[in-house]
Amino acid sequence: MSYIPSTSDACITTQKNTRTTSFDFDNLPTVPLRPVSTLPLDMAQHAFDLLMAGPQPLSVDGAEVGAGLPARLISLPELRAILLHPSCPRTTRDQTWKHLISQAREHRKAWMVAAVALALPMLRRLTRALASRITIDREDLEAEILTSYMEAITRVNLTWTHPLLRLSRLTQFAVLRSYAVQRFDLLTEPEHGEGEQALSYPVGHADLLLAEAVGTGVITAEEAELIGLTRLENVQLSVYCRQHNLLYCTMLKRRQRAEAALYRALADGELADIS
Predict the structure, then answer these.
(1) How far apart, in whole angstroms, are the C-alpha atoms of residue 187 and residue 199?
(2) Which residue ranges form the domains of the chain, and what is each CATH number?
(3) End-to-end alpha-carbon separation of the chain, Å?
(4) How far is residue 85 from each of residues 89, 193, 194, measured CA to CA in Å?
């Protein structure tokens, strides 16, 4: 069974669009750890360090989680190293993240701190990807990302594969919606390989732009439907493919080509920038 501390109920609180991000470390011991910076993700790491320095640090039972983990108690710092190692199988990562998400949902507090800390590499990549696209103070952006990520933990569907990837997408979409990006631009998606890009759509009348693009021959009606459902209505691409009996990789590339065509048409003035 996973251990849940009885005296170290660390919790995370953030306040969107302000510089206020605080952590509550009830009954945690005073330890000579590095100073905490004001950046929320650094504070999350510090909260995890304090949590693991407590009298009952969190662990997972590798035998209970299964999926190739060592059949023994595994401390969370060791578990993070296992998950980040290049040789770790995807099935092991997926099953372990489903366990972590379930623990965070059921027990909150300390386990939510753990779920944030183990996702920090992904959250930092997401911060870098969004920092050049959203005009906002770095501290506020990290607070928004952290808040959106914790909300995503409560929403992500654990019956699907790639839970961490889906958490990243839910977090990214939530941040973009929150700040209502008012222009079309290419945004590198951190969950994809380097160089892969996707068009970020503004709130407003993006459907009118898709209709104009179809009318002028920039994209096809089928491509407009694909973009409208999977980008504007947030239907998961994997769900769309299952519903239409299509290959995921094929549709992913088709959407990327269509969005690249849209971007070129906007840049060349062939389409009106509707917002």
Answers:
(1) 6
(2) 9-173 (no CATH), 184-267 (1.10.10)
(3) 52
(4) 9, 17, 19
Measured CA to CA, the distance from residue 53 to residue 261 in angstroms comes to 53
User: Apex CA 153: angle with CA 12 and CA 37, to 5°?
Assistant: 30
Cβ–Cβ < 8 Å for 26, 8: yes
Cα 203 from Cα 180, distance rounded (Å): 6
pTM comes to 0.56
Alpha helices in the chain (DSSP H): 40-52, 62-65, 76-84, 90-107, 109-118, 120-131, 138-155, 163-179, 206-215, 221-227, 237-244, 248-267
| pLDDT single digits (tens) 113-165 | 989 999 999 999 999 988 877 878 888 889 999 999 999 999 888 888 888 98
Cα–Cα distance, 197 to 174 (Å, whole number) = 18
